[in-house]
Design a protein that fits this description.
9-stranded mixed beta sheet, 10 helices, 11 strands, about 40% helix
C-alpha cells in the first residue's frame, strides 16, 4: 500500500550534533516512500529549538516568514527532560497513521520507509523495526569489540535473526508503529530511558513493546533487516570504559523493565542471548586467538566482562526497585495542538550523550 502516511520523529537535545541532525532530516526527505512530515522534538534546549525553527523556514517574496509546508515541524519537548517524553511529544503531535523514529545521529537509507510500509500489510502488525549499522568514527570496528554487544552503541547485534522476523521488541532509534497502538498501550515510560542522567540508560522501547503486546494480545511486532539506518559511533564510545558503563546501565534498565512487566516477559529474549549467543561468541573469540587472529582474545574477554557487568547492574537495579528508590510511569498520549513549532522551553539545556 503506497499511500501509508508516516510521521517521522527525530529527538534532539544538543547543538553539538547540529550537522548530524541536518543529515538525519535530509535522509528522511530523500525517502522513496515520502514521509508526510518530519517532527524535530527538542529536549529543553531553547537555543537549539530556535536555531532549528529558523533552519526549517524560508522567506516569501515579500520578505515575510513562511513555513516550508508541513514537511518539517520543530517542537519543544512538552514533558520532563528525556528521550521518552520527547518521543511522546512527537507521537502526540503526529498527523500520520504511522509514526517512525530515527535517532538524531543516524541517517536512513532511501528505502527505509518503504520497507516499513510493506511490513504493515498485515493488519495485526503494530510495529516494524529495521537494522541499525554502526558507523565507527575511526572508520573501523575496534578489534576487541564483539558484534554480540553492538547494542552498546545503539546498533543491531549478532544473535538477532536475519530477514523479516517476528520479535518481542523493536529498537527505538529505528522503528515504526501504528499510531492507534499508542491509544491502547500509552506512550514511552518516563524514568527508564535517557533522561539527562550521566549514566546511559535505555530499554524504554523494550518496556513499551511488551506493554503494547499485553494490551493488544494479537499484536505482531516485526524486524525487517532491509530497513537500514547508519548510526554514528563517536570515538568516545569506541573505548572500553564506555563499554562497561553502558553494560552496567543496561542492567539497571533491565531491572526497571522487569519491575514494570515482570521478569518472565522482561528477560525472555535475554535468556536465549546469554545462554546461546554469548557462549558461542566467547568460543569464536578464543578460536580466533588460537589461530593468531587479531582481537580474538579481546573479544572473548569483552563478552565475559559485558555479561558480568550487565548482571551486576541488574542486581543493583532490582534492589533499588524493591526499595522504591526508582520510579517511572507511562502516560496516555494526548494529541497536541496542530501548530508549526512549539514555543521555546524555559528549562536549561541538558541531556547527556545519547
Amino acid at each position: 500500500m503506497s499511500d501509508r502516511r508516516f510521521s517521522v520523529v527525530i529527538c534532539a537535545y544538543t547543538e553539538d550534533r547540529w550537522d548530524d541532525i541536518l543529515a538525519a532530516v535530509a535522509s528522511v526527505r530523500n525517502q522513496s516512500h515520502p514521509a508526510l512530515e518530519t517532527l524535530l522534538v527538542v529536549d529543553h534546549n531553547p537555543v537549539l529549538l530556535d536555531r532549528l525553527a529558523e533552519e526549517y523556514r524560508e522567506y516569501g517574496a515579500d520578505g515575510s516568514d513562511v513555513a516550508r509546508g508541513e514537511e518539517v515541524r520543530v517542537l519543544a519537548n512538552a514533558g520532563p527532560r528525556g528521550l521518552s517524553a520527547g518521543r511522546n511529544t512527537g507521537i502526540a503531535a503526529s498527523r500520520g497513521d504511522f509514526v517512525a523514529f530515527l535517532d538524531d545521529d543516524a541517517v536512513a537509507e532511501p528505502d527505509w520507509l518503504r520497507y516499513f510500509s510493506e511490513g504493515f500489510d498485515d493488519e495485526k502488525v503494530v510495529a516494524v523495526g529495521g537494522r541499525t549499522a554502526p558507523a565507527w568514527a575511526s572508520g573501523r570496528r575496534p578489534a576487541w569489540f564483539p558484534e554480540e554487544f553492538d547494542w552498546v552503541v545503539g546498533a543491531s547485534y549478532r544473535g538477532m535473526a536475519p530477514g523479516k522476523v517476528q520479535v518481542r521488541n523493536v529498537l527505538g532509534g529505528n522503528a515504526s508503529f501504528r499510531r492507534t497502538a499508542f491509544d491502547a498501550s500509552g506512550g514511552f515510560a518516563t524514568g527508564i530511558g535517557r533522561d539527562g542522567d550521566k549514566r546511559p540508560l535505555g530499554c524504554e522501547e523494550t518496556e513499551l513493546c511488551i506493554r503494547m503486546g499485553n494490551a493488544l494480545p494479537d499484536a505482531v511486532l516485526l524486524i525487517d533487516d532491509r530497513a537500514v539506518i547508519h548510526h554514528k559511533v563517536p570515538a568516545a564510545r569506541e573505548r572500553f570504559a564506555y563499554f562497561r558503563t553502558r553494560c552496567y546501565a543496561e542492567g539497571l534498565s533491565k531491572a526497571l523493565v522487569s519491575q514494570s512487566v515482570g521478569a518472565g516477559d522482561g528477560l525472555s529474549s535475554e535468556r536465549s542471548y546469554t545462554t546461546r549467543v554469548l557462549p558461542a561468541g566467547v568460543a569464536r573469540g578464543m578460536g580466533d586467538a588460537l589461530r593468531g587472529r587479531k582481537g580474538g582474545a579481546g573479544r572473548a574477554g569483552a563478552i565475559v566482562v559485558g555479561l558480568v557487568t550487565t548482571a551486576g547492574g541488574y542486581v543493583v537495579g532490582t534492589t533499588r526497585a524493591r526499595k522504591g528508590s526508582v520510579t517511572f510511569k507511562s502516560e496516555p498520549i494526548t494529541p497536541l495542538a496542530a501548530t508549526g513549532s512549539a514555543p521555546a522551553a524555559t528549562a536549561p539545556a541538558g541531556g547527556e550523550s545519547r
